[in-house]
Amino acid sequence: MENNKYIEVEVWSDEEVYHTFTQEELFGPVIATQTKDNDSDTTDSEDIPLADLGRKKKQPVKRKLIQSDSESDHDDSADDENYDPNKDEINSTDSEFNVKKVKTKEKRRVLMNKQRETAWKKKTKKLKIRKKNNKRRISQSVLAKKLRDKIILLQNRRKVASVAVNRAQKISQHNCTIQAMIRKTHTGRLDTLLACNELRRVSINGDGNCFFTSLKTSGKIAESASEIRSNVCDFMTTNADRYISFCTRKDMFSKVEFLNELELLKTRGQWNLDIADIVPLATANFYGSVVRIYSSSISTPVIDIKPEQTTEKVINLAYIAVRGQEHYDAIDIISNDSDAKRDTDPTWEVARESLPSTPNDESCHANMPVETTPHKRASYRSPPKKHSSRKKTRNPEKWKRNVRKLLKSEGKEYVSATGRVVAPKKVHHHSCLKCRFKCSEKFTEEQREDIFQLYYSLGSYERQRQYICDMVQKSATKRKVTGKRSIAQKYFMIHNDRKERVCRNFFMKTLDINRKTIDYTLKKKKHGAFVATDMRGKDPSVNKLDSCTVEIVKKHIESFPKMESHYTRKSSKKQYLAHDLNIKQMWKLYVKDCEKKGITSVKQSMYRKIFCENYNLSFFKPKKDQCSFCTLYDRRKAAGTVNETLQKEYDEHQVQKERAREEKTKDKERAKTDKSVYVATFDLQAVLTTPCSLVSELYYSRKLCCFNLTIYSLGDKQAVCHVWDETQCKRGACEIATCLLKNTLSVCHRSNVNEIIYFSDTCGGQNRNQYVTASLLYTISQVPNLKAISHKFLLSGHSQMECDSVHSTIERAKKVTPVYVPSQWCTLISLARKSQPYVTIPMKYNHVMDFKDFVKKHCTNLKTSVT
């Protein structure tokens, strides 16, 4: 060591054993002798143990003592004995003592950090244990509260689930209803097409074997349906190379896949396969006959599938082309036997709908069979049925909201409900330079405009959404993702009679629709069809009455007896209620009836609304005293549209009216002065209902109709009333003729009358007919002294006569006198006028003479012209 400049010292420390070295052992006797002379310094240096430097696991500590070159040239022993370090050397950074202090501080700092970290971990562990213990000490109230919250959450989830289930059920029922309506429309169209070709449809069970069963029934094949299926599939397997070219997916079909599809097709119930469309062609070739399919589709009503070899044999099949519910039925030819069995055969279905507009289409005529010609449509159209309501008929087509909805469906400009002007739809320009489908290169602006016009010319919400369903397809993506990204949408547009794929923006810009419209449409798409409906404006009213309450009101209104018109029953079927009734009185009776039954009644306004919207009844006495021609003239005159022709006809009409009245006045004055002339007016009074009283219970009872023919003498002002009820006889021409005969015989026997003149209105069913004329002819033949009988008719609409005053007097009397039986009418009529009471003659069924038989036997030249 004496010749070396460095002295290396290694100190190893373990976890359990520590080695302490003194300065004398480290630095030798030189340092030891120096520290003896200075006790203060030695005590400071000797009291520093190496164990306080910290614990290090198996880390060697190296110290290098560097000696200067000058000291190494002298004698080491002499230098060590004479060396005495000063205070600055000891405190310098190169001093061995200072190095030890720095290392000791650093080791203490590391040790303190480890202790702090250990203490923090212990504290954290204690906190976790404390929290765990606190959780175990939760009170029963907190547990009960949490349990209640959980129960409420589960109940809410159950309610939401039940609402969702009910909504799903309603949607499924609505979809089923729509599918049934679509199927009914297709079935009716198909039956009409078959009926025009003198064919009828025979229903076949839809068990997946309907095509082959229909083939057996229509073609009268002896084999069973299963055998026909097997034979056709074997025939297609033998000629697989030929029929694989007809597949719609021939680019994706290999021969192995084609044969596998045929094996599936052999199984009963398997039909919705890609090769099912080739089966009719294979069937035609196998049996060597033409397969003619009558379809419910509008575009292709008749399809002829001809075999390779020409033949005259034809097998007819009926095809219901409802997407997702395709079905085949057999067809039978209508013959005399089938016509006789039409009512008993359950498979016979009569087409009630009109023939679709396809016979006017040239393409449809090209597909129609040559030997069958559709029946011509009738040129006559029945007049629209009148709405039986007191209120005017509503016209929903002119409602503002419906006009606004129609304009929106057609893509035109319209004003919204808030008054905002909405711009019309148009084709927006879109450049597809970066599009991989090159949409702009495939479609020109003219073609896009045609597609735009086609879409908005549909004019229907459902048809436009169905167009979107046909042009947008959904498919699974190749990427393994979840959610909306797992489904891709493919957009197509028609180009040269085939679909070309385009990008989404190009599709939306062409039709001027947004993404929301497409997403909602595809959401409501099922089996390739749009199953939703336009629900705008179809929300039920909040204040709408339930159907049971409305039915109770209707039954009460219908409980009142009704009668037909007296004057206009030939040209009108309008019915009338009692003249002493009105809506307010009917509502009061309804309220009393509800109180007896213990049910809630509706307000008078609602009762009036139901009465006016559902019934066309009147309360006043039916009269026809106004002239229709005069009313027309007054209406034209008020509007300022009277022309010369109308004015001339009106003047002639007024002249005839005055002539008729002057004739009656002249005969009236003659009857007053000449006793041998009898002038009278006669008319049938309006129906007298029995019983007739103001008792409320009698309003609901069925009434008996009684009739009164009044003959009023203009000379002596005497009135004779012939009274009978509907159980005895009617009110036709024979009854009127019999009454005139009785009155004429009575007048001739009472006085020396040789001329009789009657005035009446022009009612053809009662007065102006050949039977009344025959009765007058019979009367003049029976009375010798009677020279002439004249029957004069007043102008229609101006037939006011004196006998009408008798009727008004009777009407006033019956308001204060109740009548319960028909015989009481005679008493009431006779007492209606105090001075010169009316004479009443009750009529029986055996009093009426049959003048119709008399006319057939004695009047043979009634059709001879006047000239």
Question: Can you describe this structure in just a few lines?
Answer:
With 867 residues, this protein is of the alpha+beta class. Strands 18, 19, 20, 21, 22, 23 and 24 form a seven-stranded mixed β-sheet that branches. The chain has a five-stranded mixed β-sheet with strand order 3-7-6-4-5, sandwiched between helices. Helix 2 (29-37) packs parallel to helix 5 (76-82).
Layout of secondary structure:
Elements: E1 8-11, H1 23-27, H2 29-37, H3 39-46, E2 61-64, H4 69-73, H5 76-82, H6 87-91, H7 96-136, H8 140-196, E3 199-202, H9 210-219, H10 225-238, H11 240-243, H12 255-265, H13 279-287, E4 290-295, E5 302-305, E6 314-320, E7 327-333, H14 336-340, H15 362-367, H16 400-409, E8 414-415, E9 421-422, H17 439-442, H18 445-457, H19 461-471, E10 472-476, E11 487-494, E12 499-502, H20 504-511, H21 515-523, E13 525-526, E14 529-530, H22 547-558, E15 563-564, E16 575-576, H23 583-597, H24 604-614, E17 617-618, H25 628-639, H26 644-673, E18 677-684, E19 688-690, E20 704-713, E21 719-725, H27 733-750, E22 755-760, H28 770-782, E23 788-793, H29 803-814, H30 824-830, E24 839-842, H31 851-858
Helix pairs in contact: 2-5, 9-10, 10-12, 10-13, 27-28, 28-31
